[in-house]
Design goal:
391 residues, alpha/beta, 6-stranded mixed sheet, binds S-adenosyl-L-homocysteine
Amino acid sequence: MPVKRITLHNGKEHSLLRFHPWVFSGAIKIKDDVAEGELVEVYSASQKFLGVGHYTNASISVRLVSFTPVEINDEFWFNKINKAYQYRKELGILNENTNVCRLIFGEGDGLPGLIMDYYDGHVVFQAHSIGMHMNRENIVKALQKTFGAGLKSVYDKSSETLPKQYAAGVKNEYLVGKGGEQVVVKENNCKFIIDWEKGQKTGFFVDQRENRLLLSKYSKGKKVLNTFSYTGGFSIYAALAGAELVHSVDSSAPAIELSKQNAVLNNISNHEGYAEDVFDFLKDKDNTYDVIVLDPPAFAKSRDVKHNAVKGYIKLNALALRKIKSGGILFTFSCSGVIDKMLFYNSVSAAAIEAGRNVKVIHYLNQPADHPVIPFFPEGEYLKGMVLWVE
Ligand code: SAH
């Protein structure tokens, strides 16, 4: 079947020639009768081939999966997924101590609209575009070819990530395997129970792996507070690195329960979990800590709430800075894509001024290589952090 075509207005090809993979609706001049999620070939006004991608009737109308003419068949999907897997193995992200990582990070892996996390042979699949969801069987085949018998299950958890109009008809389900077993993974030899069915997002926040490892360096003999702790990622690293005591705080009671189970799993006895609002916890208790981790959810998901997000970051960081002992350390993060690095750094500086604390930046942090940022698509950069030494 011939692939349908989209032709752009004159001059609208430039971003695609720079390998930015999105076509906005306003750039389209002529469009065949294309169905939602269907593959289209995109051409410039002078009929130069620009790429092939999934169409959807929205502001971002096409997400390109290739900038060269290629048939989107089983071989195409296998090449993309196998390449992403080999990249993670070659970089040593997956190794004898770590069997969990992000396997596909959308645009960063040349597959806009697709997120997949890998948990020791189990894959959690989240489609953010209807086109990717319609290709799920092809993607499963590619996973089976990539991992062979090592593929234990594939769970489609797209009902939470697809645009609302499609999500309604979609249920989360196993595409391979049937679940029901407790899965324990290891990340830098720290063990974690993963519950992707009931947990948040794909079940675990794999993007903090390297930043958690860095926390280990500063934790020995320290009183550590891990806020927005979810299932205790940072807490387990700190405790195993010899922290004197570790407190986890998260508003989700099931997450705190799992952080306690993770502590037991790792033979940790000096961990306490609190199912509380972090702002209240920081205000109410007069504890002080040597090390505090702030890893809040995205305060701004769109540009119109950016200002409120900045206020949120300043308030939170100021509260935490007041709780840090002299000579202590703050790990502070933002995962809001719309808050750029400089704005975040400035917000943290403002917080230090407000709290009256003199600080030194000892690390600037970002997302790891299994969440690749490609220079042609700066929108892919979302996680940033700082480590401050607090006088
Ligand atoms: N640091 C975690 C990931 C944090 S995700 C890790 O390494 O795995 C953000 C977490 O913040 C979620 O678990 C969510 O339940 C929690 N959360 C959101 N708002 C909160 C609030 N006001 N107080 C406490 N926890 C909150």
